[in-house]
Amino acid sequence: MTPTTLAPVAADQLVSQARDLSTAALNAAQVAGATYADVRIVHTLRERIILKNGQIGELERSHDVGTGVRVIAEGAWGFASTPDLTPEALVDAAKMAVRVARASATVRQHPVRLAHERPVRDRWQTPCQIDPFRVPLEVKIAHLREIDAILRERSEIVVAESTIESMRERQWFATTEGTFIDQEITRCGGGFEVTAVGNGDAQTRSFPASFRGHHKTMGYEIVPALKLVENAARIRDEAIDLLTAPACPGGRNDVILMGGQLCLQIHESVGHPNELDRVLGMESNYAGVSFCTPEKQGKFRYGSEVVNLVADGTVPGGLATAGYDDDGVAAQRWHVVRDGIHQGYFTNRELCARIGENRSNGCNRAEGWSNIPIVRIPNLSLMPGTWDFDALIADTKDGILMDTNRSWSIDQMRLNFQFGCEIAWEIKDGKRGRLLRNPNYQGITPEFWNSCDAICDNRWFDLWSVINCGKGQPGQTAEMSHGSSPARFRGVVTGVTT
Amino acid sequence: MPVTTPDLTATLEAAIAASPADATEFILTDSREELTRFGDNAITQNVAKQVRTLSIRVQHQGREARVDTTQLHEKGIRDAIQDALGLAALQEPDPAMMPMLQGPQAYRTQPDRGMRDGSPEDRAAHAGLAVRLCLEAGARAAGISAQTRTRVVILNSRGVHADATTQRCEYSVTADKDDGSGWAKQVVSNPDLVDAEAIAQRAVGKALASRHHRPLPPGHYPVVLEAAAVADLVRMFPWMAFNALDYLEGRHFALNRMGERFFDPKLTIVDDIVEVPGLPFDYEGVPRQRVALIEEGKFSGLVHDRATAARAGVSPTGHGGPAPNPYGAYASHLIVAPGVVRDEDLVRGLDKGLLVTQLHYLNVVDRMDLSVTGMTRSGTFWVEKGEIAYPVENMRFTDSLIHMLGSIDALSRDREWAAAFWEGTSLAPAMRLPRMHFSSPAGF
């Protein structure tokens, strides 16, 4: 077969239209009574290949384009979206958004005011060495087949599933304040999972991470860097070995978490509790609120002194890395927790003043064109410490090393959490020992982060990905990265059973 | 709130006829979601969202691929078909590829459930009512008033033509006062049936009653789960137990034990779209069947798509996603059979134990023993001698569905449409269980 390259549907054809279309919508909104309006025209191209047990389980490409119009009228928000890219459809959407805003204004406490932001005219895009949409599909499928063959070499394996995904989003953002931003984000990644059955059990292992693998804002160069083929046999064998491994012990134990699990720990117990809309009660009816209330800012001991958590919209490769958020605010970097003390929240232009800030830190993002921007977790990382990984194991007399998230649950205040991992190892007298199956641990957020006494250094640091963060009503999905090195937590409740 | 897309049927039929593929399938999803969200006593989001997607699957020379597009004009559709053909051509022929469903298929007709358009003004009125009642009680209001209408059209070149529209209205309110929190929700298909005042009052009442809660040590307790909590609990079954693919792959708690009694004889769960409205077909175009999943405590059924049905040698049940689908079928419309007890008598029959309003953030602990974990939320109370004694702190539970539902004291005769936190809508009664394992306190 001749290698074939599929040309992406050209978003470029929208370039010439984006300015005129957005101007039509902005003008219509203002004529209808909006005191502020913004328009996002978004074109998204996605490709996903799933190979399951040697068969193409899914080969799908999607082209998605449309426009969202957001307005402030009578001091309240309104939003409408349309998939029709005609001036008439955008004008209708703008008028509907103003009508919706007027209805919103009947139930408001304070008029919406946006923090000042200098108008910007810019073009920004993520680095991309190898365009994933120009890599021949045969190359991708061949790569997955090589992984699949290794995973299914042993008879205990009932499911072997590998995937490569690519996404490119081009967005034109225009406001009545004069901002016009043309932004392009390319994301790529992949991974595999393998399930073994036997001994009355089923055990799944994933690599590099569960829930569709590892992703970054970069090109296809990430795929060979993931070393999926090189790790396939080891991960397969771990799944099989787990079938006969003893269960994770209960009680209080010292726990070392690897980066793939720490990623979700950071996300759920530091990320969501620091979304300012949530802190202020705006998510109360759905996902909940936050224990980390505004009076804690600057003084609350969130974690031990070795805990530093940094939000960074600029970090290369981060899934939330962008030039600007959907308020048109430039990406920034700041401490959420410094030396264990809580410092700041994730904000947008509307809400930052509620905590005394005069500028948003750029965390307002929407999924695609059909949703309104809401406060989202940015890239948020646990900064490296000083430990060598082997030295950390050697320093742990009795403990449990856990890796790769399997399940998660956390309460509506973001305090009581319980995580399950795919795999664990016993640590005895400073040595990694036997495998343990069905590991889980439970804790209360500040107690847990205050029990952290050791973090490995930057040789062990990686930026892990979350590609399925759900929030809001209507529900939206967002992506972000959480960097970490392995870290140790003392006296954690493990092995929670029924 | 019309689904505003002009009728594309003629355009789609012409495009299928003109498609150069051996077989072509279109799935048109056209939805309009209007949602007003309020929090901190004000409307915070108010959206009118229209999304149309055409998902195109082609089969050609033993290969297949799928392309989705939002460009629904003739050229956009033609381009997407060509793109799908290009993707398909890059694969090796698959001798096991399942041909598209042969039409015509007969689908059940749905009763008229009184669809009518809502408006941003109607929804703002709902929000305003909740805010007013909460402010009068000194509480803080949050919630949504939402109306979603979705039309799904499935056409293929082998004669399948399915077309149906569903509508769902949801009104929910959370009231927070001091350390108390209350919640109530109503899900209906007809917006005229929303009883906004009753929902808001119920949330406020729970918030007031749940203030000044006391701690409770972890342990096993008898419990009354209100209908919303039951809905959340039973929605864990589809993820772990009802998908035939999991069974065929050998990762299933009841492997080779179908028909055995795992649960209390009072537990019967079916999946159907009559009492809980849904599409009368799945995303392969297969007519939706009523499937008995648990009958009088016996694990009795699985939902199938065409692929798993072929493997198992049975008929598909109409629960499939767009093919090819590596994840199997999903039971989305669960109906739990009612009991004979009035709601209030469930609590009256509890000597000592817990009353739980809502469960939150459930997730799987171990699919092989159906163990799950989650939190209580929005009003958890200690009951003594059939009366609410005092509110207690929220608790995390970690338990197996087999343990929890292995013995059921009683089910209420009244049921509610109860929307689960994650996904899906169920018709569920309240339940009294003799034991449930609460594994750790939340501290609030």
Description:
The complex is a heterodimer of chains A (498) and B (444). With 498 residues, chain A is α+β, with helices and mostly antiparallel strands. Chain A folds into two domains: 12-242, 2-Layer Sandwich (PmbA/TldD fold), CATH 3.30.2290; 251-494, no CATH class. Chain A has nine helices and 23 strands. Chain A has helices at 12-32, 87-104, 137-151, 222-225, 228-242, 259-271, 276-279, 389-394, 445-450, and strands at residues 36-52, 55-73, 76-82, 121-125, 157-175, 180-198, 201-207, 214-216, 251-257, 309-312, 333-338, 341-342, 364-365, 374-375, 380-382, 398-410, 416-428, 431-436, 440-444, 452-455, 462-471, 476-484, 487-494. In chain A, strands 1, 2, 3, 4, 5, 6, 7 and 8 form an eight-stranded mixed beta sheet that branches. A five-stranded mixed beta barrel of chain A has the order 9-16-17-19-23. In chain A, a hairpin with a 2-residue loop joins strand 1 (36-52) and strand 2. Chain A is globular. The termini of chain A are far apart. Chain B is α+β, with helices and mostly antiparallel strands and 444 residues long. Chain B folds into two domains: 9-196, 2-Layer Sandwich (PmbA/TldD fold); 213-444, no CATH class. In chain B, 21% of the residues lie in helices and 39% in strands. Chain B has ten helices and 17 strands. Chain B has helices at 9-18, 74-89, 120-136, 196-209, 227-234, 236-240, 244-248, 306-312, 343-348, 401-404, and strands at residues 23-39, 42-60, 63-69, 140-156, 161-177, 180-188, 219-225, 269-271, 291-295, 298-299, 333-336, 352-366, 371-384, 387-391, 395-400, 410-419, 425-441. In chain B, a hairpin with a 2-residue loop joins strand 5 (161-177) and strand 6. Chain B is globular and about 70 Å long. The mean pLDDT of chain B is 93. Strand 2 (55-73) of chain A pairs parallel with strand 3 (63-69) of chain B, so a sheet runs across the interface.
Give descriptors for this structure.
heterodimer; A: 498 residues; alpha+beta; PmbA/TldD fold; 2 domains; eight-stranded mixed sheet; five-stranded mixed beta barrel; 9 helices; disordered N terminus; B: 444 residues; six-stranded antiparallel sheet; five-stranded mixed β-barrel; 21% helix; 39% strand; globular
